[in-house]
Amino acid sequence: MADGERSREGFVREITDPDEDYSRWYQDTVTKADLADYGPVKGSMVLKPYGYAIWEAIQAGLDRRFRETGHRNAYFPLLIPESLLTKESEHVQGFAPEVAWVTQGGQEALSERLAIRPTSEAIIMTMYARWVESYRDLPLLINQWCNVLRWEKVTRPFLRGAEFLWQEGHTAHATGDEAQEETMRMLDVYEEFLCTDLAIPSVKGRKTESEKFPGAVATYSVEAMMGDNRALQTGTSHYFGTRFAEAFGIRYLNRDGELKLASTTSWGMSFRVIGALIMVHGDERGLVLPPRVAPTEVVIVPIASGETAQDVIAEARRLASELSGAHRVHLDDRAEFTPGWKYNEWEMRGVPLRIEIGPRDLKEKKAVLVRRDDRTKAAVSLDGIGPAVAAALSDIQANLLRKASASLAERTFRVKHRSEMNAVLTERRGFVRGGWCGEASCEREVKEATGGTIRNLPLDQHDVSICVACGKKATAEAVWGRAY
Amino acid sequence: MADGERSREGFVREITDPDEDYSRWYQDTVTKADLADYGPVKGSMVLKPYGYAIWEAIQAGLDRRFRETGHRNAYFPLLIPESLLTKESEHVQGFAPEVAWVTQGGQEALSERLAIRPTSEAIIMTMYARWVESYRDLPLLINQWCNVLRWEKVTRPFLRGAEFLWQEGHTAHATGDEAQEETMRMLDVYEEFLCTDLAIPSVKGRKTESEKFPGAVATYSVEAMMGDNRALQTGTSHYFGTRFAEAFGIRYLNRDGELKLASTTSWGMSFRVIGALIMVHGDERGLVLPPRVAPTEVVIVPIASGETAQDVIAEARRLASELSGAHRVHLDDRAEFTPGWKYNEWEMRGVPLRIEIGPRDLKEKKAVLVRRDDRTKAAVSLDGIGPAVAAALSDIQANLLRKASASLAERTFRVKHRSEMNAVLTERRGFVRGGWCGEASCEREVKEATGGTIRNLPLDQHDVSICVACGKKATAEAVWGRAY
After folding, report:
1. In this predicted model, what pLDDT tens digit does every residue of B409-434 receive, in sequence order?
2. How far is A352 from chain B (nearest CA, A)?
3. Domain ranges in chain A?
4. Residue A73: which of B1, B56, B149 has the nearest Cβ?
5. pLDDT category of residue B3 using cuts at 50, 70 and 90
């Protein structure tokens, strides 16, 4: 038993310093905060209960927003016949290299290979072609929560891996304008969700031709900055115009009885945002969770020993019960661990607020609130503790966003010269904003030279005259960064 | 437009009489109540928004119960290496014939085939073997919501198909007794859920050797009776003893420092229960949903024409807003359909309660409540309509269970002679209860002769002396039926 305890204590402590090796720090945090474990197939991942609870909170936040914007959930098949996947030529070219193929069912070889969905346009558009007959069937606004699979060589938990959990919205509209409006509406939903629930600021913008979704007319993304100043694409929204409608035959009779092609969109956010949560807010002690998506918002740790132990535990219980009406509260009254060990563990797991209560606190009718975000401590009266806890949680949520926003602003460099650009990108000091000529060749050249890519052309465009990369005339302002 | 309307009206009407062709009635109800559609791969199914909303209600009801019994959700990989699937020999023999195999990832052929999970024991037990070290890690109580795939030749929406949505609970315990207790606890959860939320009574019992889950020591099931008197297995709970722990190496150090094998269980319920909902409560007009899982509990249809139309619609809106605090309410104020057409449509979709309100009702400050279950109408004052609606819904829920329970009781025959047994089973008049000798050969003979199988050996055993099938000494009471 003593051995077991020692090894557990060691387990919590062994987390790599993020300044020393960010990538190892990330992996340590994932496994030691008990979010996920590695599966038996290379690159596969198991989402453990604590990680899954965060995903459920994310799902709830997004799902509510999707409903408020008129969408309904449905479920489409996992397996897509090859013949459907190839209907839209750009789409299949983009995805074919990373598709896992089912070739055998039971004892028989299949006559046609079936793709495990890497994304569901092909199957959903096939169904929409069947469902849409007249303008009265439009818009069709459907979302799906599911697993998808992309055969990736390099994998990293949450960020890049064969299988991931996500939502994919797919909509069909009577006009291109309506579809374009939907594309931007959902991009806004993602930005607002990231900001409000995850305390993650992001840069909204349009992807360049070379970075857009295979088959899309335009792809928009929200890009967030991680703790190592690299970019993470956290959500995308695609405008397809009539491309998929043409490939799959989604036609409707308009009010004048004319047969028209529908315009479609799709938009997706995956459990990759859990990776963003880790890297935007995490620190050398592990995870830091915004209260809104924390499975446990408040952990109560009684400091109980000697003759007052029972009184302290009784008060801690009362407190847990008092607070649990308004918050997700966990009482850690395990006798086999010391309070110090518990502090470490709950900090590692990113619980936003800790309440410590000991014999002296009990006598003074007080408790100590310890914030995970800035580790400040405050003694509060047990009488007014409800409002104090609510205020602390709300302040933590706001503070995390403030810090992340300041960090994004500080590490975004408006540059005029290529040398500055190179310095920022090669030294991974953040995002570069500046003019771009619009040429894919120039974009490629920057990537080869610095490892940086255009994350997007931000919607809030500043005036620019020349391309920072090549010095030619600029056509738009771009944001460059090194991306995950 | 007129054409579109006519064809829609026809669509709602064209439902096969269940007494004429039950199977076609079922398929008509599935598609015409807009629950699901057929996918492009043979046997695949698309769960449409209305069907998915019912599944979400079912998930919510089960998930709450799983949490209350101490379980947490997690997510394990979709793909299981063949070498893991074969670790438990009975398990692989049972599932191998219906596994879909991934043999190619991207452009390469895989060195080992990967199974799309037909169930997740193999992968979850592999992880448990890693996670369990000491008695303090037990019990491990995890549930997973996911898709699974079984390559079936014969398919039928919701009931039998390649891919289905389900939950699978997997638990590991220190002792066999605890695991056995968990097995029965979850069987009880299923029975109570079916009864309380879905208004479906069921027979709880133990499966015979020939019908148990591949690899289980014992399988228990809840069996419900459908509208055509056939049985549907709606949930199963398996006790594995130490079989899987031995095959996968799940060992723990007990309090005395000895290395012991864990005992495990699994239990699952799938969207097959939507099939049960259709077949237990449905009638010649389509679906009948119990209020607890109805996406829309109350539909309001204004009868609005002529000069009072606007007043009627305004009152219907007010009513919708008044009732929507307590119930899921939909106001159908579409101008292009007649009230009669709407009645048909919402009856087809099984909405439990309809409120009709027209000009005369408005004048008399009344509305008419029409129940879907017995189609009775009642005029109620607009003043006290909230309580009247709540009472009606609660009575509908209770009445559906009462009717289904009466039907199960009436169509369960305690028989003493083989001739009676044969008559019930071959004429599909219901369940047969009686003594069984315990021999698989006898069970097989009955199946060949009548198409009936032992659904389970019910937990509430009556005294029996001889086997109804073969006349030998009985070892237990069994329930026979023709099963889906």
Report:
1. 999 999 999 999 999 999 988 999 99
2. 21
3. 16-281, 296-394, 412-481
4. B56
5. very low
